[in-house]
Amino acid sequence: MQGEQDNICIELRNLVKMFPGVTAVNHVNLKVKDREVFSLLGPSGCGKTTILRIIAGLETADEGEVLIGGQVVNEVPPYRRDCNLVFQNLALFPHMTIGQNIAYGLERKRVAKNEIKKRVNEMLEFMSLEAMKDRYPVQLSGGQQQRIALARSLVLKPSCCCWMNPWRHWTEN
Amino acid sequence: MKILNARRINTIVSMIGYLFVWAPIVVLAIFSFNASAYGVKWESLTIKWYVDLFHTPEIMQAVLRSLLIASITTIFATAIGTLAGYGLYKYKFAGRRFLRMSVLLPITVPYVIMAGALLVYFTRIVHIPLGYPAIIIAHISFSAPLAVFVTLGRMQRINWSLEEASVDLGANTLTTWRKVTIPLLLPAIFASAVLIFPWSFNDFTVTYFVAGVGTTTLPLYLFSMLEYSLKPVLINAISLIFIIMPILLIMLIYLSKARTKHGS
């Protein structure tokens, strides 16, 4: 039982979120294990995005608990949570190059400059976007931008990565 | 045929518009080289008014005063206006709509009424001495709303998920402001400064009411020259300098942008 609890990456207990005139999240319970790919499916406006935003700390829950790595994080600000979000509109910083976008989170965590350079290059290679390092987001296609948004989250090696609408910009290639 | 005629009419109307705007400036430029001191009738070509200009310490002092006041006003009015615009857009609080609308007031109230009100406020209520402090505070009070409007306009076009993305990637509020919000607002900040500087530099009405001894700005000095000076043509010369300077600045910015674009 203890072993199973250790493998839980995200846990939501009786999560409730209300907006004026609507209950967006109504007593939701779920557990996501380490290395598990967990999908939230539902019609538009059913609260999927709200749940992800609560997990990331961008919204506060009205009731219930959010646990990441077994710790209750309701009071932990988003910039201290070991969880990253890939936004539906990607939210790449338009005034930064692709390299600077990927390095942004590592710089905030005060990772050494050499290490940042190495991890950014590795991530660009992993995404097959090495040639795009010095370009700006506006110069990339939708699919390429999505890969960069994912790279920007994964480069931080978070315990969990929440991805909003992952197939939105995906192409067959 | 009809389209061709419409195009021709459009061109003619545009030309008349440009002529209306530029004709006085062209006349002013030409007459600044006129040897006649009153500048009404053309006599001969000269540059002596430009030489005179730089040998008239009162004019140079007035220019420096105006530049100083406009610079301080631009810095403070842009900062205050940008912060106010940001707050009015981002934070929801009681009376927000009223505040957004009332920001317009200093722009819509006739200058002469605003100037009178400021004079009474400074001398009777807060007892701020007339002169530099009063001029700068007055200029900030009528310039900051411009920055609020420019900022509000810009903020409507910004993707605010970018701030959330920054926080999600580990940046606290202050770092997010420094690294994401300010760079995104930079076009608005620059546009506000570009609008506020000449507005403050040009102001005559409000400055006339709240200026004290030894704080005569360039517009006030030019007005007194027009009334009492024997060489009103000097106004043409100084005006031309202040018309050419921003045009040169805009051309330099344009050229450097074009070069950067070409380089990349």
Note down, in words, how this protein is organized:
- The complex is a heterodimer of chains A (173) and B (264).
- Chain A has a four-stranded antiparallel β-sheet with strand order 2-1-3-4.
- Chain A folds into two domains: 2-76, Rossmann fold; 98-163, no CATH class.
- In chain A, β3 and β4 form a beta hairpin.
- Chain A has 173 residues and is α+β, with helices and mostly antiparallel strands.
- Chain A has helices at residues 2-6, 48-56, 98-108, 113-126, 142-154, and strands at 8-19, 22-33, 63-68, 71-72, 83-86, 160-163.
- Chain A starts with a helix and ends in a 10-residue tail after the last strand.
- Helix content of chain A is 30%, strand content 23%.
- Chain B is mainly α and 264 residues long.
- Helices cover 78% and strands 0% of the residues of chain B.
- In chain B, α3 crosses α11 (218-228).
- The longest helix of chain B is centred in the first third of the chain and has 34 residues, at 57-90.
- Chain B is globular and about 70 Å long.
* Largest sheet report of chain B: none
| Distance between the ends of chain B | 43 Å
Q: Regions of chain A with pLDDT < 50 over 5+ consecutive residues?
A: none
Strand order of the largest sheet of chain A: 2-1-3-4
Main sheet summary of chain A: 4 strands, antiparallel
* Helix content percent band of chain A: 25-40%
Instruction: State which percent range the strand residues of chain A make up.
Output: 15-25%
Measured on Cα atoms, how large is the radius of gyration of chain B? 23 Å
Order of helices and strands of chain A: HEEHEEEHHHE
Give the helix tally of chain B. 12
Which architecture of the domain at 59-233 in chain B would the CATH scheme give at its second level?
Orthogonal Bundle
Number of domains of chain A: 2
